[in-house]
Amino acid sequence: IKMAGDSRFPDMDSDESEKSEEMEIVVNVGGVRQVFYGDNLNQYPETRLAELVSCLSGGYDSIFSLCDDYDPGKREFYFDRDPDAFKCIIDVYYFGEIHMKKGICPICFKNEMEFWKVDLKFLDDCCKAHLSEKKEELEEIARRVQLILDDLGVDASESRWKRCQKCIWKFLEKPESSYPARVIAVLSFLFILISSVVMCMGTIPDLQVVDAEGNRMEHPTLDSIETACIGWFTMEYVLRLISSPNKLHFALSFMNIVDVLAILPFYVSLTLTHLGAKLMELSNVQQAVQALRIMRIARIFKLARHSSGLQTLTYALKRSFKELGLLLMYLAVGIFVFSALGYTMEQSHPETLFKSIPQSFWWAIITMTTVGYGDIYPKTTLGKLNAAISFLCGVIAIALPIHPIINNFVRYYNKQRVLETAAKHELELMELNSAEGKATGSRSELEDLSREGKESPFYSSRIKVSHSDTFIHLLSEEKHYRTRLQSCK
Predict the structure, then answer these.
(1) Which of 57, 124, 336, 436 has its CA 20 to 30 A from that of 26?
(2) Do 274 and 360 lie in a common domain?
(3) Are 393 and 368 in contact (CB under 8 A)?
(4) How many separate domains does the chain show?
(5) pLDDT tens for each residue of the chain, 489 residues long
(6) Same domain, 248 and 330
(7) Of 431, 457, 484, which residue sits at a domain end?
(8) How far apart are CA 486 and CA 489, in angstroms?
(9) Domain shared by 292 and 327, yes or no
């Protein structure tokens, strides 16, 4: 490397009459040579390549502030960067837009664009969407890792009640945190199943008993099991509510609302049974109790809390609202058309079952969905032809949106598995770097807490590597080196 002021360093701009637009710039990026002309580069003067045109007159310091090395004889600039990404970035000088090639990590490509000082607005919209998706994945990994790191530590400055709240919350909400927590999750799952089975068995006439007034009611044994299950659900909900860090968010969460709906009917019916008879007729009380007992079916949705498959299905359906809307629209149009045609064609038959178009809607629904109960069916030749066309159209209408819905489910399921694996690998690398003493620092706020001695030694050893070479944005502020999570693996 030649030092500033070296006599062997040749004149950078010997021909003063040479215009910058006519200059030939040779760039070597990762062993790949590219030749540019000043008129092309000057279209975007704020980019790094455009700055190379004018840096020659600035001397040694100006040149090496922009590149990694420079050959004065060949007037060739050297950069230790990704050549594949560079080939995509230089398209901006020729086409005014940039497309990422398949196989390039979006996060790495974004860092390359920042290095070459090319604005992200030149990136094509499809590539921006891919970049946004990858950012969301990294943020989700960072969130999961940070939650695990937070669970490992105990803040000595917190009160005993706060620490107890965290332990209860982790015990009930995070089965993976310990073996007893997994046991509690399994017990909760079993109570849900038992409660659902008891609710179904209570409707079997042979298992019911007759009270003094001759009314059938559930067997006392089943009623006792139901009471025990409700007691478990109530205790679980109250403990989770007390230990939740954000009680308003907890109360408004969909799954917690389901929990309330599964518990509330029992207490309301109990209140009506003991107190309602004094305020209204006994028959009205019994009807209200029966209606509330039907609401017990809501507890089956509690299984979604313990089933990642049900959660994935729910998310896939949320992401498939457009496809589901198309399905309903296709069916609605077909039902209206074929029910009207069926009603019109069957009017000539004296024993027609199509009394009106609204009544024909039911026939169209069960025909287009290929259910075919047979309670309403055409008797004329034209009616049968209309029915054949209707169920063929129904099969096509149902089959078309199914594939995108299945793709959404598979994509989200695979994505969750990848995120879980990436979070585990990140923690493993943190532990490895901590054991080998390769960590170079941590986030500034965590360093302050560490200096003040507010963390336990075990927690501190995990936190110190939160900016490890895996580089997750939410765990580190460093942005100038590549990382394993940014690779395309």
Answers:
(1) 124
(2) no
(3) yes
(4) 3
(5) 333 334 334 444 444 434 555 678 889 998 888 888 888 888 888 899 888 888 877 777 888 888 888 888 888 899 999 898 898 888 888 888 888 888 788 888 888 899 999 988 888 888 888 788 777 777 777 777 776 666 665 555 667 777 788 888 888 877 777 788 888 888 888 888 888 888 888 888 888 887 776 777 778 888 888 889 888 888 988 998 888 888 888 888 877 887 887 788 788 777 776 665 555 555 555 566 666 666 666 666 666 666 667 777 777 788 788 888 888 888 999 999 999 999 999 988 888 889 889 889 999 999 998 888 888 899 999 999 999 999 899 998 888 888 888 888 888 777 777 777 777 777 777 777 777 654 444 444 444 434 444 443 433 333 333 333 334 444 444 433 333 333 333
(6) no
(7) 431
(8) 8
(9) no
In this structure, what CATH number is given to the domain that contains residue 245?
A: 1.20.120.350
Tell whether 183 and 289 lie within a shared domain. yes
DSSP state of 155: -
Domain presence at residue 474:
no
Q: Are residues 188 and 135 in the same domain?
A: no
Q: What is the CATH number of the domain that holds 52?
A: 3.30.710.10
352 shares a domain with 244 = no
- Backbone CA torsion sign across 129, 135, 138, 143: negative
Which residues, 6 or more positions from 258, have their beta carbon under 8 angstroms from its beta carbon?
Answer: 298, 299, 301, 302, 304
Helix (H, G, I), strand (E, B) or coil at 123: strand
Domain housing 131 = 24-146
Contact 359, 403 (CB under 8 A): no
Q: What is the pTM of this model?
A: 0.52
Decide if 318 contacts 254 (C-beta within 8 A).
no
Q: Which is nearest to 118 in space by CA: 84, 93, 83, 82?
A: 93
